[in-house]
Write a structure and sequence with these properties.
The chain has helices at residues 3-8, 12-30, 32-45, 60-69, 76-90, 93-96, 103-118. By secondary structure, the chain is mostly helical.
């Protein structure tokens, strides 16, 4: 099999996920302590309400996607929608669940984001 044939068999989402992970790593390098804090928030609040991740770092891909878009948010409701959208993208709408289950996580992320803005 040639490289081109291998690329043709690659799932469409793989390029997107690879790029998101790369962006997330760049974001982590800019502020590792805050990145870790957001991972911990997601781990503690478990917004999908199922323990898929055995440690906070397991949420790193989603955290990169969340942090990247936080500057567009102006309220906790915006953050709730953002987090819901991120989980829908990384998983599936069915697996991500309902938007309402992301409220507690959004409150904590919003508070952390506001604290970052004051530093």
């Amino acid at each position: 099999m040639t490289d081109n044939q291998a690329d043709d068999n690659k799932p469409e989402w793989l390029d997107w996920a690879t790029e998101e992970r790369h962006i997330g790593q760049l974001i982590r390098e800019q502020n590792p302590a805050w990145f870790t804090e957001i991972c911990q928030i997601l781990f503690d609040t478990d917004p999908m309400m199922i323990r898929l991740v055995g440690e906070p770092e397991g949420y790193a891909p989603e955290v990169g996607s969340i942090i990247r878009s936080l500057p567009q948010c102006i309220s906790v409701e915006d953050v709730q929608q953002l987090i819901f959208n991120v989980f829908t993208q990384w998983f599936t709408p069915e697996f991500a669940g309902g938007r309402s289950q992301y409220f507690e996580t959004a409150q904590a992320v919003w508070a952390s984001w506001k604290a970052q803005q004051q530093e």
